[in-house]
């Protein structure tokens, strides 16, 4: 199967000119392949320590009041007044567990083979791919002869979000190829911003979510905000959940639907919604909708389909506040990932605990890392950090 998929002699090398909805790991705000930011444009990607400085807006503190009250926290900032004010949360903060390091090791279709000297070598389905990796400060473990055999190398700006092009060692490869993770089929994809249509470090969250859905004994309602190519939505639906997937990029939603079709998942209960994530959850709050699990993997900067601006440091407090309101009253979970921001996991950890005051449960926060596995997938190598996360569970 793997050999069969090697080198489909198809389209030209993919350049940085025409992709959207891609998660980018570092640098300045990205455009969707255009000069101007458009829907779903995202800047920076993952990794606790990756990314540029960001001004932290004052999110205030939850005052010790007995009755929830709405307060404005954006007055002193230059961002537009949010559509609804933050609720002052009272009650005890949830229990905490820190630091938690969630590690992704290799699977049949994905493996971090080696890293070092500012690059990483990974196996995505049938292909070996080399991409820049600013955090790989250490030397490579494997000899140059192994790296030189890579099928595709991303060359371009050394910035994480720099556009560039893919260089292939032989004939140009097709833009997509089939992959399978957690029993879910989807396309690997050479995109313009060095990304390949899936963020494998998310496997740690996805397998946790899958187990929770399978153990529930009823169809859980899952909301996947900033859902990109839909792999998490497909994993959740296959495990038995009813899924609402929200992303601002029409193109990303199109890729997600292609992934659904690839796995013959047309009948899966997934609502694909192309909308600004904040706008969507505010509407759900007004409607009184409830979800058992909410996943949110926001970029540092992005735009909704109508130009709505998402700035993580400005928008996250309100997003979590609204998510709390649309979580089911019992047995609920909220999983947040953040990347390419200059912040410690403690900043999202403490925000999560303040937001979830009075709801009990546990907040666990830390980093998502991927462990090198060597060419055979059996060697235990170094851990590469990709992102920060914070996860609240009611029980
Ligand atoms: C980092 S990706 C999420 C990746 C996803 N968690 C995964 O692993 O497959 C970020 C996504 O946010 C979307 N996005 C950016 N701004 C948005 C906004 N304002 N509302 C909704 N989605 C947005 C982008 O189109 C992109 O698909």
From TrEMBL:
<feature type="compositionally biased region" description="Basic residues">
    <location>
        <begin position="1"/>
        <end position="10"/>
    </location>
</feature>
<protein>
    <submittedName>
        <fullName>Class I SAM-dependent methyltransferase</fullName>
        <ecNumber>2.1.1.-</ecNumber>
    </submittedName>
</protein>
<keyword id="KW-0489">Methyltransferase</keyword>
<feature type="region of interest" description="Disordered">
    <location>
        <begin position="1"/>
        <end position="78"/>
    </location>
</feature>
<dbReference type="InterPro" id="IPR013780">
    <property type="entry name" value="Glyco_hydro_b"/>
</dbReference>
<keyword id="KW-0808">Transferase</keyword>
<dbReference type="GO" id="GO:0008168">
    <property type="term" value="F:methyltransferase activity"/>
</dbReference>
<dbReference type="GO" id="GO:0032259">
    <property type="term" value="P:methylation"/>
</dbReference>
<dbReference type="InterPro" id="IPR029063">
    <property type="entry name" value="SAM-dependent_MTases_sf"/>
</dbReference>
<dbReference type="Pfam" id="PF03602">
    <property type="entry name" value="Cons_hypoth95"/>
</dbReference>
């Amino acid at each position: 199967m793997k050999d069969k998929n090697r080198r489909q002699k198809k389209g030209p090398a993919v350049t940085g000119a025409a992709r959207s909805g891609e998660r980018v790991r570092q640098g300045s705000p990205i455009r969707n392949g255009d000069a101007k930011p458009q829907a779903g444009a995202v800047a920076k990607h993952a990794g606790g320590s990756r990314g540029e400085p960001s001004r932290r807006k004052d999110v205030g503190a939850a005052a010790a009041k007995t009755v929830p009250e709405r307060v404005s926290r954006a007055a002193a900032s230059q961002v537009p007044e949010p559509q609804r004010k933050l609720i002052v949360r009272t009650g005890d903060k949830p229990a905490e567990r820190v630091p938690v390091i969630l590690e992704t090791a290799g699977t049949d279709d994905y493996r971090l083979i080696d890293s070092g000297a500012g690059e990483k070598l990974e196996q995505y389905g049938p292909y070996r791919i080399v991409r820049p990796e600013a955090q790989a400060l250490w030397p490579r473990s494997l000899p140059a002869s192994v790296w030189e055999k890579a099928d595709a190398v991303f060359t371009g700006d050394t910035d994480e979000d720099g556009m560039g092009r893919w260089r292939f060692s032989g004939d140009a490869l097709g833009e997509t190829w089939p992959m399978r993770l957690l029993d879910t089929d989807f396309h690997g994809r050479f995109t313009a911003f060095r990304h390949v249509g899936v963020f494998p470090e998310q496997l740690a969250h996805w397998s946790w979510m899958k187990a929770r859905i399978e153990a529930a004994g009823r169809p859980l309602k899952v909301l996947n905000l900033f859902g990109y190519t839909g792999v998490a939505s497909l994993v959740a639906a296959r495990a038995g959940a009813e899924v609402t997937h929200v992303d601002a990029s029409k193109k990303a939603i199109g890729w997600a639907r292609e992934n659904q079709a690839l796995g013959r998942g047309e009948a899966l209960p997934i609502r694909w919604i192309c909308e600004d994530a904040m706008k969507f959850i505010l509407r759900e709050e007004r409607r009184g909708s409830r979800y058992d699990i909410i996943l949110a993997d926001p970029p540092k900067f992005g735009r909704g389909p109508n130009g709505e601006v998402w700035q993580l440091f400005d928008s996250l407090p309100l997003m979590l506040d609204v998510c709390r309101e649309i979580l089911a009253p019992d047995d609920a979970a909220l999983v947040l990932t953040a990347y390419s921001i200059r912040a410690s996991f403690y900043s999202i950890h403490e925000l999560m605990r303040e937001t979830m005051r009075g709801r009990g449960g546990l907040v666990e926060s830390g980093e998502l890392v991927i462990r090198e596995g060597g060419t055979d997938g059996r060697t235990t190598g170094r851990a590469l950090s990709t992102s920060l996360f914070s996860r609240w569970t009611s029980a």
